[in-house]
């Protein structure tokens, strides 16, 4: 993408944020929300706030990274404690789980934003997200959650490029998704299962992997990593140590998916059901 086109999209984003006048940014610390929060801070100053959820649906590792980012870049931050596991439509883990989750989470954030005097909430959805299965978008539209990155026509690659140019450490951070995305639809969500997945992935990241998923299939852990990183896992000591640690978490079988990491791979089951 030519530099002038990306620059124009950034200018369009700035214009969009100015039109909002004040905004609370749903902030996870990932590539998109971090970029949006920084631009909103630059454009709106104290008329923006980042809203961060403390949730059983996300790992402590991601939460700590988000807090550090906010501290480093002087983002005004408000932390909200959430209880997604108290919502039946989320716990049942249906195909439309993300709709119920977004409705619940953004509802809490809307209340918090209103109390703080912010007129709008924005989330970090980008143009590429429109090509994926995203039932949460329906809830966002119902709650009038703004999507300024989409309005500006920014893709993930362009957001990474702009973030790199701005010196943001998130520019090459792997895509983030809630821990529930590791669990097959229809399998009820529990705190213990989510914690198990988070701990299993922590072990993988400790080995130096850049992106990974541990898909939870009962007593089987299916590991997805980029094929170029297979060599990190397969040597004896690394493999044996990982197997031992995941078995200690309660998994009886630990498998490496030879296809590698595929974003949203659990959605394949939905596609099959639709045919």
Structural description of this entry:
This protein is of the alpha/beta class. The protein has two domains: 3-165, Rossmann fold (3-Layer(aba) Sandwich); 179-274. 47% of the residues lie in helices and 12% in strands. The protein contains twelve helices and seven strands. The chain has helices at 3-20, 31-44, 60-72, 88-91, 97-116, 136-142, 148-151, 156-165, 191-206, 230-233, 236-248, 268-274; strands at 23-26, 48-54, 77-81, 121-122, 212-217, 220-225, 253-256. The strands form two sheets. The protein has a four-stranded parallel β-sheet with strand order 3-2-1-4, with helices on both faces. A three-stranded mixed β-sheet has the order 5-6-7, covered by helices on one side. Strand 2, helix 3 (60-72) and strand 3 form a beta-alpha-beta unit. Helix 1 (3-20) crosses helix 2 (31-44). The longest helix has 20 residues, at 97-116. It is globular, with a radius of gyration of 19 Å. The two termini are 36 Å apart.
